[in-house]
Amino acid sequence: MILELCFLSAFLFCVNGAKLPEPEVKIEVLYKPFLCHRKSKYGDILLVHYDGFLESNGTLFHSSRHHGDKNPVWFTLGIREVIKGWDKGLQNMCAGEKRKLTIPPALAYGKEGKGKIPPESTLIFDIEVMEIRNGPRSHESFQEMDLNDDWKLSKAEVKEYLRKEFERHGYPANDTHHEAMVEDIFKKEDEDEDGFISAREFTYKHDEL
C-alpha cells in the first residue's frame, strides 16, 4: 500500500502575504458505471486496485495487481493514510469507476522521493475503486455500534463491534487485545470522561483526522 510520507514542497512560499495555490491533481475518468449508488467522500473506506508509473519514463514502480499479495488495498479517504494526491483525486468516485491521476511531486513524495520513486517525481496512477464502505466516523457506523439506540457508546458496545469486525476480516477474537483497544479508544475519544462516547464525540472531526 502506498502510505503517505509528508514533506513540504521546497517551492511553497508567500507572495504578497499569501501562499501560492497548491498544485492540482489531473483527473481523467477512464470508466464510469451507468449505475452509481453512492460516491466516495472524505471519511469513507475504499478498496482499490492501482498501477503506479513514473511520468518521466513510464516505469511501473508498483502494482497492486502484480506485486506483493496481488490483492486490492483498503484505506480511509481524506485522513492522510495515502499521499495527498490520492485524497484529492479519488473523491466523488463510484464503485467500479476507473481514473487516471497525474500527481505533481508536492502532492506525492516531494523532494525526498521514496523507494523506487526519485525526488521531485510526477506520478501517474491508474486506479479502480472496487468497493466503498462507511468510514469509522460516519453516522451509519455509529448507529451500527449503538446497540441500544441511546445515542452513546458504552465500552461493551465498542468491544462487541471490534469483535465482529475482527471476525468479519478473518481474525480470531482476542478479549484481552480488544479490551486494551477499547481502553485506548475511550482515553482518546471520551472527552468529558463520563464513561461513554457520545454521537458528537464520535463524529467530531479531530485534528489527527
UniProtKB/TrEMBL annotation:
EC number: 5.2.1.8
Pfam families: EF-hand_7 (PF13499), FKBP_C (PF00254)
Domain of life: Eukaryota
Positions of the EF-hand domain: 133-168, 177-209
Catalysed reaction, written as an equation: [protein]-peptidylproline (omega=180) = [protein]-peptidylproline (omega=0)
Top EC group: isomerase
Record-given protein name: peptidylprolyl isomerase
Organism annotation: Pygocentrus nattereri (Red-bellied piranha)
